[in-house]
Amino acid sequence: APDMPVIDQAYSKLSNSITVEWRPVPGATNYMLTAEDGDSFIETIVKNSPGTVTGLKPATLYRITVRSINSGGKSQPSPSRKVKTVLAAPILSVRSLTCDSIAVSWKAVPMAAGFSVSLMRSDGLGRMLKQNTTNTSLIFTNLDPGTLYTIKAYAWNANGMPGDDFTYNQRTSPNAPVDVKVAFNSGALRAVVSWMPTEGALTYSVTVFSGLLKLRCNTSSASCVVPSLQCSSQYYVSVTAYNEAGSSEPTDAVSLKTVPCAPVNISIEEDEPAHLLVSWSSVSLGHYYVVFVKSDDGLEVHCNTSYTQCHFQSDCGFTYFISVFAYNEAGQSPLGDVFNYTTAPCCPSEFRAVFTSSDTVRVTWAPVRGADLYETRAAGGSGAVLCRDTATACTLSALRCSTPYNITVYSFSEARGSNTSCVPQHVATAPCSPEIKNISKEGLSVISVHWQPNNEEAMYVVTARGEAGFWHCTSTRNSCTLMDLPCGSAFSVSAIARSPAGQSLPSYSIPLETAPCCPNDLTLAQVTQSVTNISWSVGRGAQTYVTALESPKGQAKCHTLQTYCLLGCITCGTNYTVSLRAISETGLTSSCTYQGYSSSPCCPSGVKLYRLSNDGIRVFWRASDETINYKADLHGSKGNFSCTPSLGLSLCDITKIPCGDVYTVVVAPVTDKEPKLTFCPKKIYSVTCSGSSVGMVISRGKSNVKHI
């Protein structure tokens, strides 16, 4: 085993250890240090001197020995040394009371007679502060705010031996920020708070409060955004700086007024035509108001006022978009509700009323702005006529004739309704149709027309229309006379009324027929001694005719559809009056008179032939009237012969008659009329050439040819 070492010195610098120094022992590879306090011991193996025994109790007396060790074993313990460990270090509790002070406190340390505490900026700047005390706390003041300080403390015993020291780093709390500024964003209703950074501050807290409402914003920078502010509110803003030591005092509150809230209870009305009144409720913190009015054609106007209403000029048929903003030094209020107001549509212009009939008027007008529908109202008489349409034209029917009407065209819109300020137009309907009461004949071509007058200040026009043309008469009364109407014509008679308002519808037509015309030409031709043929030209309008020949001796009459007639039972040599009645299909009659007619003289009777000497023939007859001259005609194959006696004689002679021939003998009165009479009886005689006696045989037919 190696030799026993000898302790040179033993001392304690820390409260939990003792350091031992000795001279090296040849051949020793390790050393064992032993510390005993009577209750326990602690051993420590070290390589060489010096060596330290740790894990000891502070302020405790220990007996220290050293033994050398090698592979051969351990030496004997060295002579012991008594060493007392130093005092334990005080355990500090440190805090920054204010931004310029630090409070240090600790628990009492056993065996300590006093304490020494020193403080110095950790960055080495400035001087060190040191205080000795027998108390267990002290305060350092007049320090730099927000600065990191190093604090060192130890206790000493009655011999003045210092114990372990305790080191603690503590920062003072920061100073309150300065130059606080508040920038308000009116559009986003938020505030940006900024300040100058303060020494030693790690974070900042911005407090915004208004009454019971508090908003906070924490940041490590020198600005902070406070969102969600209320409009029309006054806030107070303060900033507090923070670090690990605590907080600064809050800054003096900075006043912040937010923008006013958007005005509410907005009402829009047309207080008078073409004027809009916009009103609203007063807004807290609102200093003045601006009303913007934009029409749907893009034109915008505004009104700036400190009151709660504004007047604007407006036009009909426009839609206005209205917004109201409140203002103060913070800016413009948020956008509130945008109201739209549509004014009543314009009254129609270019009004035109045209009567299509006496009871129907077509009204047209130019389209107007803002109108979705039009109503045309005609008020007059005892009621009103309505017409509604989206078109710019309307036909009002069933109007009362001869009546003044006030016609108004109203425009409607779905948004605003009707424009009730439209001015009516005064229109009078055309006169009422007259009613023909009676048509009377005043003469052959004169007709008087009577009607019921049913209009005031109207001119009545009566018209007779027919194939023959038009005839008119006018009157302001209840009748007029149609003159010179042609005979034999059919007319349709109607009446109209005229006034400055127009012309009525025609009345119902009354048929009118004039008496048929008398034939212009009438011819009488005697067919036989007792039969006369009467013919005439067509009488316009006549369907049948009645002709008559009248004399004291009698009457001959004929009713026919033709334009001629044979009248029998005519007495020869008689003067007749000639009459004709033209009768229409409806029975109208025109009595026509003509020049008198004389029938031809009567044919002689008893015609006989007597043979004379030297080839002569005497014709003898019995005259019906001695004042009439007669003529005898003989017609044969060998020649024609005639003789005319003097007035008053009833015989005449014809000489040189060839015998041996058959003659037709006619004795007829001689008249100045053409043609000559051909209806007297004819006798046929045969004149022979033998014999000398003269005889007479009267024959009445070709089958009874007699010879003389």
From TrEMBL:
Coiled coil: none annotated. CDD domains: FN3 (cd00063). Signal peptide: none annotated. InterPro entries: FN3_dom (IPR003961), FN3_sf (IPR036116), Ig-like_fold (IPR013783). It comes from the Eukaryota. Residues 1-88, 89-175, 176-261, 262-346, 430-517 form the Fibronectin type-III domain. PROSITE patterns: FN3. Pfam families: fn3. Transmembrane segments: none annotated. This is FNDC7 protein. It comes from Catharus fuscescens (Veery). The lineage of its organism: Eukaryota, Metazoa, Chordata, Craniata, Vertebrata. The gene is Fndc7.
